[in-house]
Amino acid sequence: MLNLAELKEILAQPQKIVITTHHKPDGDALGSSLGLYHYLVQQQHDVQVITPTDYPEFLQWMPGNDQVIIYTEHKEKSAALVQQADLIFCTDFNSLSRINELGEAVKVSSAKKIMIDHHLDPENFDDFRLWNTLACSASQLVYEFIAEFLGDKNSINANVATCLYTGIMTDSGSFRFPTTTSNVHRITADLIDLGADNAAIHQLVYDHSSENRLRFLGFCLSKKLEILPGYNTAVIAISKEDLAQFNIITGDTEGIVNYALSITNIRLAAFMIERTDKIKLSLRSKGTFPANEICKNYFNGGGHRNAAGGQSESTLEQVVHQFKTLLPAYKNLLTQ
User: Quick one: DSSP state of residue 20?
Assistant: First the structure.
């Protein structure tokens, strides 16, 4: 493992750097990656952000978006850049399976790997690790990496600040999740002072829905929402036909699970989507209920205690049934 002094020494000279993040990047994944990108470019490094897949349109306004390479659209170029890299920064993920096919290229690369992440149970593929499960976001950790570990807060310009603010805002649920500590507020205040326009960022992210997405949201809540009052649980299950009916694109399902969780007395919400080759699950919970435990133990996934994800190769109906059969074992936690 590299220590901080060794990493600082490496970064003191121009390096070929690749930054990557998890598939279907969210605001924190892209915000942490692009924030780090803008910082490293200032330090005269040759930097490229590569995402494993596409990402929502409501994030494509972010500064540096036009420089991002999407692996699924440019596989050969991406693989060559990873092979040639001196350093690979891995933001907002800690398992190479989270970057799909790109994971194998990163694994065999001779580049030093730097992980900046806040999820549980990291793999040991990295050479340097900034890892804190108490952090609200990877973007918070990138801020700390620049301002505290490298002692270079003066290099956080408006582009860096904008990207990191976006990541912190989205992964903290607009500053309402329990990980939003007083220190997080101090960091975001710094970012505003350094050039992040908080009102504009909020509008660009949250006031950017298509008509199809809004109609789909209404459909989910009026036709697909199932309440299980005996377990204080809500379930929304969406088929491929439902997605096709509303011409759903990447990002359109983002955050819908939170509407189910917002219902009074609901402690656990599940959002299940039938994709081409598997069922994707998003779980959200309140209080101490371990949503990540369910995803890890039963649905090949994991995540945070109150926000987790998983997947299954069973049918949608089978996954819904399996989920419901698990609830009796958790009844005390869900109803206490």
Answer: E
Domain around 313: 211-335
Rounded Cα–Cα distance for residues 90 and 284 (Å): 25
SS3 255: coil
CA nearest to 146, candidates 62, 6, 32, 14: 32
What one-letter code names the amino acid at 53? T
- Average the pLDDT over 202-220 and give the result: 95
**Which segment of 123-127, 169-173, 207-211, 219-223 scores lowest on mean pLDDT?**
207-211
What pLDDT sits at residue 226?
Answer: 98
Residue 90's beta-bridge partner residues?
A: 20, 115
Distances, alpha carbon 259 to alpha carbons 65, 218, 220, 256, 265, in Å? 29, 11, 10, 6, 13
As a 3-state breakdown, the chain gives helix, strand, coil percent values, each rounded to 5, of 50, 20, 35
Q: Which CATH number belongs to the domain containing residue 142 in this structure?
A: 3.90.1640.10
**pLDDT recorded at residue 130:** 97
Same structural domain, 35 and 155: yes
* Predicted pLDDT of residue 276: 87
